[in-house]
Amino acid sequence: MTRRDVRYDVVVIGAGAAGMMCAATSGLRQRRVLLIEHYPVLGEKIRISGGGRCNFTNINAGPANFLSHNPDFCKSALARYTPRDFLALVERYRIGYHEKKLGQLFCDDTARDLIAMLKAECDRGNVEWRMPCSVDAISREDRAWRIATPLGAVCCDSIVVATGGLTVPKIGATPFGYRIAEQFGLAVVAPSPALVPLALPPDALARYGDLAGVAVDVEVADGLAVEANRDLLEQALRNLGENAAKHTARGSVVLRAYGNGNTVTVEVEDSGPGINPEVQRHVFDRFYRGERDAHGFGLGLAIVRESVRTLGARIELDSSPGEGTVFRILLAPARVREEVPTA
Ligand SMILES: Cc1cc2nc3c(=O)[nH]c(=O)nc-3n(C[C@H](O)[C@H](O)[C@H](O)COP(=O)(O)OP(=O)(O)OC[C@H]3O[C@@H](n4cnc5c(N)ncnc54)[C@H](O)[C@@H]3O)c2cc1C
Same domain, yes or no, for 231 and 321? Predict the structure, then answer.
C-alpha cells in the first residue's frame, strides 16, 4: 500500500446484477464504495436475460429452489432479502411487470429498465466508478486489500468479487473470479453449464430454425385413454404442432388434452395472428395455401383432416384474426375393461 493509493471501504469488481446491487447496498449504508467494471457497456447480461425482458424474480422462490453442495447456504440471504423486497424496489421505480406463469415475473417493456434502476440505486449510494477498467492484481497488504489497475491502485477494507460466471464471454464474462479464488487458496467446485444453446444439424435447422423463441406447453389431464391408431394420431398432432409453431413468431403453443366422459379432446393452440373466416373455409383443402401457409405445399392440414377422418374422430377449428387459433381433435375414450376377479 502506498500513500498515493486511494482508500475505500468497499471495492466491488464486476458491475453485473450482483455487483451493482452490492455496491448500491453498501453505499446506502454510508460506505465509500468503488465499482470496477472492465466492459464498456453496463449490464449486458441483464439486457439479454429473459429474451430482453428479464425474468427478474419468482415470487415463490425459496431455498429449496437453489442447487448447492450446501443446501443451507442460501437460507439466511433469502430470509433477509426476499423476492417481495426486490419487487418493492421495482415498484418504487415504476417499472411495469407481469407474471408469465408459476410466479415468474418479467418486465413489461425491457430489461434495460432494471439496468437503469440498479445504476440509479448506485448513484443514490454515491458509488464511484472505474469503467471501463481492468484489474491487474489483488494483494493483501497491511491488513487491507490492494487492487492494482491501469488507472492507478486503490486499497480497501472489504473487496467483493462479483465478476459472474463464464457464460457469453463476448459480452464481458471472464474466469477472473475463479482465478482470484485459486490465488487465495479457496476451493472451487468445477463449473458446469446451466444454460446451453440448442445446436441443430443443418437440415433440422433449415426446417425448424424459424421456431426459435416459441415455447411449447403441454397440459394433460390425468387418466385419459383413447383407442386410436397411434401413427395416425401422431401424424395429425405433428402437423398441427408444426403449423402452430410456424405461425407463432413469439409466444407459445399449447398442446392440451382433457376429457368429459363421452369425448377426449386433444387441442393445439397457438398465439399467432389467427385465421380470417374466408381462409378458414378452405384451410383443410388439399393444395390450399392461405395467408398462413404461403411457403408450404398446402398439404399439412389436408393430411390432418384425412388422418382424423380415418381415426373416426372429428376436428374443429376455432380462430379469430388477432386472437390465435385452436385446432381440436375430438376422440372417443377407450372403453375401460373391468377386471373380473378369478375364483
Ligand atoms: C441468455 C441468458 C438469459 C438469461 N435469462 C435470465 C432471466 O431471465 N432471469 C434470471 O434470473 N437470470 C437469467 N440469466 C442468468 C443471469 O443473467 C445471471 O445469473 C446474472 O446476470 C448473473 O449476474 P452476476 O452479477 O453474478 O454476473 P454478470 O451479470 O455476468 O456480471 C459480471 C460482471 O463482471 C464483469 N467482469 C468480468 N470479469 C471482469 C474483470 N476481470 N474485471 C472487471 N469486471 C469484470 C462483467 O463484464 C460483468 O459486467 C440469463 C443468462 C443468459 C446468458
Answer: yes
Nearest to 121 by CA among 39, 57, 43: 43
Same domain, 20 and 120: yes
**Are 324 and 266 within one domain?**
yes
Give the range of the structural domain holding residue 128, as residue numbers without chain letter.
Answer: 6-54+111-183
Could you tell me if the CB of 177 is within 6 A of ligand 1? Answer: no
Nearest CA to ligand 1 atom 26: 164
pLDDT classification of 110: cutoffs 50, 70, 90: very high
What whole-number distance in Å separates Cα of residue 255 and Cα of residue 267? Answer: 6
Q: H-helix or E-strand containing 203?
A: helix 202-208
Residue of minimum CA distance from atom 47 in ligand 1: 172
Q: Cα of 173 to ligand 1 centre, how many Å?
A: 7
d(CA 174, CA 176): 5
Are 248 and 171 found together in one domain? no
Domain count for the chain, please give it: 2
Pairing of strands 128-130, 137-141: unpaired
Ligand 1 centroid to residue 133 C-alpha, Å: 17
Q: Is residue 84 part of a domain?
A: no
At 211, list the grid cell. Answer: 421456431
CA distances from 86 to 63, 72, 81, 323 (A): 16, 21, 8, 34
Residue 297 lies in a domain: yes
Q: Which helix (H) or strand (E) holds 33?
A: strand 33-36
Residue type, 190: A
In sequence order, what are the residues at sequence separation of 6 or more whose Cβ sits closer than 8 angstroms to the Cβ of residue 9? 26, 31, 32, 33, 156, 157, 158
Cell match 389467427: residue? 274
Same domain membership, residue 255 and residue 315: yes
Tell me how far CA of residue 96 lies from CA of 91, 103, 106, 115, in angstroms: 8, 15, 9, 14
pLDDT at residue 212 in the model: 78
CA distance 23 to 125: 8
pLDDT tens profile 298-325 = 788 999 999 999 999 999 999 988 889 9
Q: Is 11 in the pocket of ligand 1 (CB under 6 A)?
A: no
Whether 49 is in a domain gets the answer yes
